[in-house]
Every structure is written in structure tokens, then in C-alpha cells.
Amino acid sequence: MRKIIAAFGLLLSVSALPTAHAEALAVSENPSETTVTLPAKGEPQSTVLGRYGEPTKRHAAVGGGSPAQPPITRWDYAGFSVFFENSHVVDTVAPSTPAPLFNTDELSAASGS
Questions:
Q1: What integer pLDDT is reported at residue 27 of this predicted model?
Q2: How many domains does the chain have?
Q3: 100 lies in a domain?
Q4: Does some domain include residue 108?
Q5: Is 78 within a domain?
Q6: pLDDT tens per residue, range 68-99
Q7: Residue 8 falls inside a structural domain
């Protein structure tokens, strides 16, 4: 019986907590574009090396213990990083460039603007 009373008391204390809230983040309509064309998915390492030169840093491969987990390597350049699965590009990341936003009109409508 004490467990039931304790559980009920816990339930009441949780329901008395303040509700969560969110803030809207204003983002420019025209994000700045990079002046460098980034490597495309599927490009071999030799093409990336020929086009961009030697990376500032090559990271050791991670994974590769099984066919389901192939080795992933990363090369860092002056404004972006390239990720390879085996020897082909799987992703390119430019930290200073945010990903494009989609459905921004729905976000604006939801915030009451």
C-alpha cells in the first residue's frame, strides 16, 4: 500500500512541474554559399587528392571489422572534411556552412508570426 501511495505522490509532483517551451531561431533567407565545390558522393580518393591536393590532416580508419561495418576515414581540408567508406566519398561536411532549411513557411506559421 505504501508503494501505491508513494507512486501517486510521485505522479502528483511530476504533474506540478512547469511545462517546456521553445524559442524560435531566426535564420537568414540567403545563407552564404561556399566558393569551393565540395567533393561529390562516390568520388574516389584519387580524384579528391588530385582536385584538392594533400589534406591538412588524415585521420586513421574507424571500423572495418566486418562487411557490415566498412572502414571509414576522414580527410580534413581548410574549410571542409571528407569522409570515405573504403576509398570512395560518402559525405562532405563544411562546418561553417549550415544545412539548408526546408519548410520554413510552416515553421513561421507554427510560431505565430
A1: 47
A2: 1
A3: no
A4: no
A5: yes
A6: 899 999 999 998 999 999 999 999 998 876 77
A7: no
- CA dist 34 and 19 (Å) reads 41
What is the reported pTM? 0.55
Residue 25 corresponds to which amino acid? Answer: L
Distance between CA atoms of 113 and 110, rounded to whole angstroms?
8
Element spanning 48, H or E: helix 45-52
Q: Which domain holds residue 86?
A: 45-93
CA distances from 1 to 11, 24, 94 (A): 15, 46, 59
Question: First-to-last CA distance in the chain?
Answer: 51
Encode pLDDT of 27-67 as tens digits. 445 545 446 789 999 999 999 999 999 999 999 999 988 88
Residue 67's SS3 state is coil
